[in-house]
């Protein structure tokens, strides 16, 4: 009887985004996706036409800190077309989270564009957990810049960085 040789299959997905900064919503997508994929590459898209609060280097560093104890998560950045990066990394799929119907429309459009650019690339979408439905990086940045707490929305290290970057306590001035 022939015994099939066992190969270690690496079932890897790329999770692309701006991550400016990463929220618990993103963290939840990565952790849940690890039940399906052996490895997740969280990839910061370098997009020079978009204004970001954190530089690519800062975002990559924060992501690395957030996932430092998770050996199956790699953090990287990429420029150019996402489908080219997916092929270059030998990944099986693109992973994205969906919160609302607005996300769905946007994701559907991007998914169709990616598919027409590269028909071999598959795309997997995970519905967000209800408690993360209204989180977005910009809402969180506004809260912190106005002195509010984002403790429930982002990892501690991210909140500390947001505070450092955005929170300017008001100086008592003349009335
Ligand atoms: N939980 C919380 N927030 C979430 C979230 C989740 N699960 N998923 C998305 N968001 C929020 C983000 O915080 C961000 O909020 P903001 O707009 O307030 O900053 C927003 O949703 C969208 O962010 P993101 O997921 O990072 O998407 P993006 O539109 O910035 O990036 C890319 C999309 C990177 C995947 C896309 O631009 C891309 O593929 N770029 C490469 C170039 C390319 O190939 N283009 C052709 C593809 S069509």
Q: What does this entry look like structurally?
A:
This protein has a domain at 12-132: HUPs (Rossmann fold, 3-Layer(aba) Sandwich), CATH 3.40.50. It has 6 helices and 5 strands; from the N terminus they run βαβαβαβαβαα. The protein has helices at residues 24-33, 56-66, 82-88, 101-117, 137-145, 156-166; strands spanning 12-17, 39-45, 73-78, 93-98, 122-127. The chain is elongated and about 75 Å long. 29% of the residues are buried. The model has no long low-confidence stretch (mean pLDDT 92). The structure holds coenzyme A.
Structural topology:
Layout: E1 12-17, H1 24-33, E2 39-45, H2 56-66, E3 73-78, H3 82-88, E4 93-98, H4 101-117, E5 122-127, H5 137-145, H6 156-166
Parallel strand pairs: 1-2, 1-4, 2-3, 4-5
The best one-word shape is: elongated
Largest sheet: 5 strands, parallel
Mean pLDDT: 92
Query: Level of helix content?
Result: 25-40%
Low-confidence regions: none
Number of strands: 5
Radius of gyration: 18 Å
Q: What structural category characterises the helix and strand content?
A: alpha/beta
Assign the CATH class of the domain at 12-132: Alpha Beta
Strand order of the largest sheet: 3-2-1-4-5
Distance between the termini: 90 Å
What is the CATH superfamily of the domain at 12-132? Answer: HUPs
Counting DSSP H or I runs of 4 or more residues, the number of helices is 6
What would CATH call the architecture of the domain at 12-132?
3-Layer(aba) Sandwich
Heteromolecules bound: coenzyme A
Looking at the structure, the CATH topology of the domain at 12-132 is: Rossmann fold
- Helix-strand sequence: EHEHEHEHEHH
Q: How large a portion of the residues is in β-strands, by DSSP E? A: 15-25%
């Amino acid at each position: 009887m022939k015994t099939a040789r066992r190969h270690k299959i690496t079932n890897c997905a790329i999770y692309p985004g701006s991550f400016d900064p990463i929220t618990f919503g993103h963290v939840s997508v990565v952790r849940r996706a690890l039940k399906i994929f052996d490895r997740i590459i969280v990839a910061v898209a370098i997009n020079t036409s978009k204004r970001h609060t954190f530089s690519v280097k800062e975002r990559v560093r924060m992501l690395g800190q957030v996932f430092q104890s998770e050996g199956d998560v790699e953090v990287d950045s990429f420029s150019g077309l996402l489908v080219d990066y997916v092929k270059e990394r030998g990944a099986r799929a693109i992973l994205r989270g969906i919160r609302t119907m607005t996300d769905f429309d946007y994701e559907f459009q991007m998914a169709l564009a990616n598919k027409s650019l590269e028909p071999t690339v598959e795309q997997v979408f995970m519905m967000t957990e209800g408690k993360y439905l209204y989180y977005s990086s910009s809402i969180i940045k506004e809260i912190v810049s106005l002195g509010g707490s984002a403790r429930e929305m982002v990892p501690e290290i991210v909140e500390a960085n947001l505070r450092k970057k955005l929170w300017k306590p008001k100086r008592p001035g003349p009335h």
